[in-house]
Amino acid sequence: VRAALAVGRRAAAEQLVEDVAAGLEGRDAPAADAELRLARGHLLSEPKAAAEQFEQARDLWVEIGRPYDATRATECMGNAMAAVDPDRAGEWYREAISAYRDLGAAHDAARCGHAVKELGLAPPASRGRRGYGNALSPRERQVAEFVARGATNQEIAQALCLSPRTVELHVAHALRKLGTTRKNVGAVLEEREASA
């Protein structure tokens, strides 16, 4: 349907939708029904009516456990409403971006991010690295264990193929998080393991 519409063959797109609808009459085919609703949404020129079709498609996709297709329908909701309600469209795009990222669909997420920018809205926050708060990161833990065994920063750097400056930072972070000095790292690590 989208391809027919893109080349100006609206009548062919409408006929295709009618044929599919007739073929689905009385059948239990939720995936096909969801695709039909998407196609109907693409045919509608009224944005809110189109968004409603896309939303119904999304709900069907969710119901049958097809998250990528559900997210695709959410993106279509944003596309439908972009010209008439940019804020609402932005909400749907952000929802789609989050879901696409969760699915590992980086290209799709980027496309929605571009749409958000085109609307003049703030892009969603990108996910950075996981923060560990006051807990040791895996690398800080590894470095702290070397320190507990008496290794120097240079020895740790060579063993882990890191620069001495990077090791210095990891050691400083580990000591701060453990609340101790280099001399007592081993005892603090043992104490933490015993209480865990």
Verbal overview:
The structure is a single chain. The chain has helices at 2-6, 10-24, 30-43, 47-63, 67-81, 86-103, 106-118, 138-148, 153-160, 164-178, 185-195. The protein is mostly helical. The chain has 2 domains: 2-118, Alpha Horseshoe (Serine Threonine Protein Phosphatase 5, Tetratricopeptide repeat); 138-191, Arc Repressor Mutant, subunit A (Orthogonal Bundle), CATH 1.10.10.10. The termini are far apart. The model has no long low-confidence stretch (mean pLDDT 90).
Strand-helix topology:
Elements: H1 2-6, H2 10-24, H3 30-43, H4 47-63, H5 67-81, H6 86-103, H7 106-118, H8 138-148, H9 153-160, H10 164-178, H11 185-195
Helix pairs in contact: 2-3, 3-4, 4-5, 5-6, 6-7, 8-10, 8-11, 9-10
**Which fold name corresponds to the CATH topology of the largest domain?**
Serine Threonine Protein Phosphatase 5, Tetratricopeptide repeat
Describe the global form: elongated
Strand tally, please? 0
Percent helix: over 70%
The CATH architecture of the largest domain can be named as: Alpha Horseshoe
Regions with little confidence, pLDDT below 50 for 5+ residues: none
- Derived from helix and strand composition plus strand pairing, the structural class reads mainly alpha
Order of helices and strands: HHHHHHHHHHH
- Sheet with most strands: none
Proportion of residues in extended strands: under 5%
